Amino acid sequence: MSVTAESNELRDDVLNGLQLSGQLERVWRTPSGLVGALMSVDHKIVGRRYILTAFAFLLLGGILAMLMRVQLAGPEQTFLSADKYNQIFTMHGSTMMFLFAVPVMEAFAVYLVPLMVGTRNIAFPRLNAFSYWMFLFGGCFLWISFLFNVGPDVGWFSYVPLSSLQFTPTKRADVWAQMITFTEVAALAVAVEIVVTVFKLRAPGMTLDRIPLFVWAMLVTSFLVMFAMPSIMVASTSLILDRLVNTRFYDASSGGHPLLWQHLFWFFGHPEVYIIFIPGTGMASTILATFARRPVIGYPVVILSLIGTGFLSFGLWVHHMFVTGLPQLGAGLFTASSMLIAVPSGLQIFCWLATLWDGRPVYRTPLLFVIGFIVIFVIGGLSGVMVASVPIDTQVHDTYFVVAHFHYVLIGGAVFPLIGAVYYWFPKIAGRMLSERLGRWNFWLAFIGFNVAFFPMHFLGLIGMPRRVYTYTADMDWAHLNLLSSIGAFVFALSFALLLVNVVYSLRKGALAGDNPWNGSTLEWATSSPPPPQNFDRIPVVKHRDPLWADSESLPVIAGLSAERREVLLTSLAEAEPQTREASSEPSIWPLLTAIATTVFFIGSIFTPWAVLWGTPPMAVTLIGWFWPSGSKEDEE
Amino acid sequence: MLLATWPLAACAGRQSALDPQGLQSDQIRHTLFIFVAVAAVVWTAVVIALGIGMLRRKRAADQPLDLHQTFEERTGRVILALGIATTVIVLGLSFVSYAGQRTVFAKDENALTLKIVGHQWWWEVRYEADSPHQNFVTANEIRIPTGQPVKVELESADVIHSFWVPSLTGKMDLIPGQKNELQFTAKNAGMYRGQCAEFCGLQHAHMAFDVIALPPDEFGRWREHENQSAESPADQLGKQGEALFRARGCALCHNVSGTLAGGQLGPDLTHVGGRRTIAAGTLPNTPATLGAWISDPQHIKPGNLMPKMPLQSDELIAIIHYLEQLK
Ligand code: HEM
Ligand SMILES: [Cu+2]
User: How confident is residue A1, by pLDDT bands cut at 50, 70 and 90?
Assistant: First the structure.
């Protein structure tokens, strides 16, 4: 196959293997040096940074969790003051949700999706770079504020009126609301890139029913991001306006209503949980197929459940508001719709079980984490069914039962597959294997530590312990279970320390990986580890859902892309027929400069409304720089 | 695992949903147990299936993968059946839940009505009768008759709080600009602890209260008594305390019925001497803790809205003595 091209340009079909690699590598390489690093638009470099940064935030959020667990280990501890504790649980929740869980999933997608669909770079590479910088600056801004004692202290969902100017007169709530804006921008940008990459940049022949499951999961997730984020944008912007320029969106005394915030927040907040969980299922499916050594059974069922889960997740937000005094019948209907989400989730689990039954599994660390994920996540799902029941929820809402439930879902449903994914894809990213021995220790410590830490919390909630309390008295009978939970939390934390050790050690000493160490079936394993700047010397042609298993000899390829400038191949939406070639961005410093200007604008506007005036020109200038038509090669000819 | 550890918690706690003392909490626990039983069965089934899948003797490892028949008829039917089973279970549970909900939220026209206002970080409790001179206000301690439905009307003076007495029933939020209500019936006499369940700022952890359920005649006597204004102190020290209560500014925020003290910002102290705790369940009510609280409330409950009052120690003693008599 070949794509039409102008006559006299250097194309990848006229060069032989080695020449071609060298030539493409020169074209796609990120310039060296510091400036080069800051200009990079390579999805692999950006993705790697994204992953590392998100894990750094996991570490920070985890340290906060440990501080909380020290404080709660016994009754009437004075390790943390009320003020510090409130900041810490707020920062823990916000960091985990906005700076770790969502970004890390998108980060893996940024790294993996272009490789898995067989293209040379993500769609809109500069936007991608920009989104990373926004994420970095937003996260740093939040954490620096925290270290300077202006960290938010009203919970990761910042209910009004507590977060209104009247009850939080300091800048703390503004810091939180602005950080939301940063992460919104970053998350939305990535979502758009993923959708376009999946729809338009797939390798020829990768029809909709040949897309790898992880890519499907990220596609669904990206749509969730695009529909959910606007809601929190409206919510947080209204909050900022209430606080900074005296509007009254949420003020009950002048016609606003505090519940408006909750509706807007949870319309975003519930899908948010699935934004975190669905990529986890994608990772689980991928890992399961590779180590069970057979394709996931029920591919179409899995995809339909992903889509179904996505849809349903928008119909459930009210189950976070059962105790706000809603009409009872309506609340009852939300019970049913919330519980129904167990059906698509269940179907996926049945497909995985069938795959294991029918496969010939090899038990390596990534698979262990996926099995741990199933065991834990099912508990979280079942306690979710309980929480969805109005009468039960009136008892357990805002207690440690709920803390247990959502950690089972978030850690079981997302973090376990994620750690599995780290073990699975580390060879592709780093070119070396992680240690299997440490990996097993890592898994068992994580699995045991996690359950010891969080299972007792179910009981704590049922015997009356509310959440977000910085202390309790001995006569409440909560001390023993809390101590147990704290011990478990430290064991769990230890497992992450082990992961860190493993990564640092294996980066230097790990066994060399080779292209496809696990015998995976998807395209990212068709290139070297780590992949060259151009990802693939020649774009693969996909004829099967599991190309590397079906065509184990050598993958068919398509030629015809330029070898002297950055080009990607556009294909049609459903059938992935080659359509045209399109230029892909050169490295550029403008995304970084634009991010800096945007940051100055947002942070400035917390302190003075004038920032809206003086902050705009720099943004405009940098955006013009970004979009200035670059002297393309054609012009020079 | 779920079942094995269940009994462990069943007996514990002063504030436990597992030890119901009210009609509603009883119903909720009943619903909860049905859910837990179903969940335990489902989880066990999944884990067993997982275990078998992992250990099953596999086909010869060298048998080539059949990539084209990944979704065999038989497997497909099993998965479909399981999907339908899940749907049935879920709909069944929805029905159980809705039945429970109707009982829990059933309304009784003849309920005794109280109004509860949430404040950062204490509870105002208003008993309002048909004739206004039967009204009185108290704080952080709610007395109710046993066997009679009680309706609490919930409002907030500042941020969102949540009223929760797990032994009697589930929680309900107190939201500014909105009136919510909750009904419950205590089956047995006793003292049940409740606590604010919605994060409401700095001292959210210290926003507890007691619900004391009394036999109806005893409740009636208490109500009669509570309806009286405070008696004037009998002794000299008490009189001095009463005067200082006004002179030193306590009366700016606190009300003591029948005296000139008419503040509205803090808890009503008309019968404070008869309450079990002070500062919304933070401390037992003794002369020593009263003294500690008045001389430095910020030390005990940092950030609460009662300022530190400048008092000489003899003034403090007089005021404590006075408050002690407000029974
Ligand atoms: C080391 C593991 C972790 C431990 C020991 C831990 C512990 C805790 C504790 C004790 C709380 C309750 C704070 C309170 O209500 O007073 C909490 C809240 C929370 N955690 Fe975690 N956590 C861990 C990991 C995670 C992860 C990985 C996520 C998300 C992906 C997460 C998300 C949250 C959220 C959203 C909250 C609610 C914060 C709020 O109430 O505003 N946690 N965590
Ligand atoms: Cu409160």
Answer: very low
B residues 126-185 lying closer than 8 A (beta carbon) to A: 154, 158-160, 162, 164, 166, 169-173, 175-178, 180-181
SS3 label, residue B119: strand
**Cα pseudo-dihedral A285, A287, A288, A293, rounded to 10:** 130
Contacts of residue B76, defined as CB under 8 A and 6 or more positions apart, other chains included, come to A298
What three-state secondary structure class fits A281? helix
Give the span between the Cα atoms of B163 and B159, in whole angstroms: 13
Residues 393-452 of A with CB under 8 A from B: 393-399
Minimal-distance CA residue of chain A relative to B283: A473
Cβ neighbours, 10 Å, residue A604: 16
Cα–Cα distance for residue pair B123/B126, rounded to 1 Å: 10
Residue A326's pLDDT band, with cuts at 50, 70 and 90, is confident
Q: ipTM score here?
A: 0.94
Question: CA A221 → CA A58, A214, A374, B106, distances in Å?
Answer: 21, 10, 20, 41
Could you tell me which residues are beta bridge partners of residue A583? A567
Residue A396 and residue B25: Cα distance in Å, rounded? 12
Pairing of β B169-174 and β B161-165? antiparallel
Tokens of A209: 């029913």
How far is the CA of A468 from the CAs of A83, A155, A319, A486, B28, in angstroms?
12, 8, 20, 16, 24
pLDDT at A552: 62
**Position A334, amino acid:** F
* Angle at CA of residue A144, ends A141 and A147, nearest 5°: 150
Q: Is the pLDDT of residue A523 over 60?
A: yes
High-pLDDT (> 70) share of chain B, %: 91
Residues in chain B: 327
Identify any residues that bridge with B191 across adjacent strands, giving them in sequence order.
B212
Give B 297-316 residues with CB within 8 A of chain A.
Answer: 302-303
Q: Is A555 helix (H, G, I), strand (E, B) or coil?
A: coil
**Among A121-135, A551-565, B63-77, B239-253, which is the least confidently predicted range?**
B63-77
For residue A478, give both structure tokens.
């909560």
Tokens linked to A277? 């969980």
Residue B281, classed as helix, strand or coil, is: coil
Show residues of chain B in contact with A375, CB under 8 Å.
47, 50
The C-alpha angle A301, A302, A306, rounded to 5 degrees, equals: 115
pLDDT tens for each residue of A582-614: 999 999 999 999 999 999 999 998 888 888 899
DSSP state of B255: B
Q: Which two tokens stand for residue A28?
A: 């796609």
**Which of the listed residues A60, A77, A92, A397 should we mutate to test ligand 1's pocket, taking the one with most ligand atoms within 8 A of CB?**
A92
CB-ligand 1 contact for A489 (6 Å cutoff): yes
Report the DSSP beta bridge partners of residue B208.
B195
User: Does residue A298 sit at the B interface (CB-CB below 8 Å)?
Assistant: yes
Write the CB contacts of A427 (distance below 8 Å, at least 6 apart in sequence): A433, A434, A513, A514, A517, A518, A529
Angle, vertex CA A329, rays to CA A328 and CA A332, nearest 5? 90
Tokens 């200035």 sit on residue:
A628
Report the C-alpha gap between A619 and A537 in whole angstroms. Answer: 38
Which residue type does B283 have?
A: L
Q: CA A476: distance to chain centroid?
A: 38
Query: What distance in Å separates the CA atoms of residue B14 and residue B12, rounded to the nearest whole number?
Result: 7
Q: Tell me the backbone φ, ψ of residue B202, rounded to 5 degrees.
A: -50, -50
Instruction: Tell me the two tokens of residue A231.
Output: 């809601």
DSSP A22-76: HHHHHHHPPPSHHHHHHH---HHHHHHHHHHHHHHHHHHHHHHHHHHHHHHSSTT
- CA B267 to ligand 2 center in whole angstroms: 15
What is this structure's pTM? 0.94
